[in-house]
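Work Package 3 (structural annotation) set out to generate three-dimensional models for the target panel prioritized at the project kickoff. During this period the team completed the workflow that converts sequence records into discrete structure tokens, so that structures can be stored uniformly alongside our sequence database. As a representative example, we reproduce one entry of 306 residues exactly as it appears in the project archive.
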Amino acid sequence: SGINAEYGIQNRVAEDFPDGRVRLVVREREWIEEQKMGSFMSVAKGSDEPPFLLELHYSGAGEGEAPACMVGKGVTFDTGGISIKPSKGMDAMRADMGGAACMASATLAAAALSLPINIVSLIVLCENMPSGRATKPGDVVTAMDGTTIQVDNTDAEGRLILADALCYSDTFKPRYVIDAATLTGAMAVALGGECSGTYSTCEDLWSALENGGRVSGDRLWRMPLFAEYGDLLKSPTADVNNISSTPYGGSITAAKFLERFVKCESWAHLDIAGVMDSTQSSSYLPKGMSGRPTRTLVEALRNLAR
């Protein structure tokens, strides 16, 4: 659950960094609502478990140095909401917080390595559950920046919680923004489990990520962000729809949705749905939930710190 994940991260920070090198700020429901994060709350409100937005602050560079902002999707269990998933395989949706786990782990690793970079990681935690309070297909919700969103599929929830986190990331005036999410089944179909699909608006940031993948062996593959894909998200009742008008290119249209909420010119989105778990053991990864691509993110942060 969200609350257990929150306590798990809080305990890990306290145990590993008693010197205060990593500072944890816990944002609870009242604060989330005060920030008018209606997109995030549209997912969280169907569950009895409380939502959290955790901030991990690591200052490895000068005080005035703009940070890298790391944003992780942390849906601690995803039923699909009212647009409920098939029962077969739903047990694996306990891993829909893979992006949050990767970002938290990469931040703690950067601190352990004393990398000369400032990092703010935003870990967005909630469940996506069906209930009498849950968002219904066709509802219109409002994100932190005032964008209205027609929610035609409540199982496209990851982009909804990330939208508000990406809006909030701008308040830190970041040099880079990187988000990671087990976002779309379409990415798993496109690339399988051999690499993470990556979208980026910045050549330098993409280079740092790609080189990080070469060093770690956990590779990335760059995907397109052509404007035409964004046209597939038009809505008759809101500024944007949370799903595409066609069944094709689903990971790309999800990335185009997220791009609307990013002001930083140096942004990258990692769709890690295909690498969420390992179906068979390898020399360094046991079978099961993988934690990928944490190693690549750590190497990318090392590259960005140079």
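The radius of gyration is 18 Å.
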